[in-house]
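Response to reviewer comment R2.3. The reviewers asked that we include at least one raw input/output pair. We reproduce the pair for C-type cytochrome biogenesis protein CcmI here without editing.
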Amino acid sequence: MDYVFLIIGSLVIITCFYFIVSPFFSSGEVPAQEVETEGEKLTLEQVYSAVNELEMDFLMKKITAEDFEKLKENYQLLAAEMLKEETQGRKAKHLPESKKKIKDAEAEAEILRELKKLRNQKG
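Raw output as returned:
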């Protein structure tokens, strides 16, 4: 009877060892950073929530004022680009220059309204 327990115990230990060591030797997988599908692209809400998290980190003094300003500016530029892409996708691309400037100003105003709305929600 001792041999049965010895064999079963050995199988359990070998199986556990296999599951622990096998990820280190697996190959042929593409790193997660290189794979980007449509589901993994950033949304406007994710950018806004990242700005809110950044502000929380700054208020809790986890990051410096310089880093905060740089990152916040980068996120706001990203949000502006995303809103411009959305508005350009909806409307014709052959607008006169004056109308484009007006639309750009409207997009920036919309970004600021959305940021204010999200700040008030998460508060």
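Residues 46 and 114 are 12 Å apart (CA to CA). The two ends are 66 Å apart (CA to CA). Further pairs are available on request from the corresponding author.
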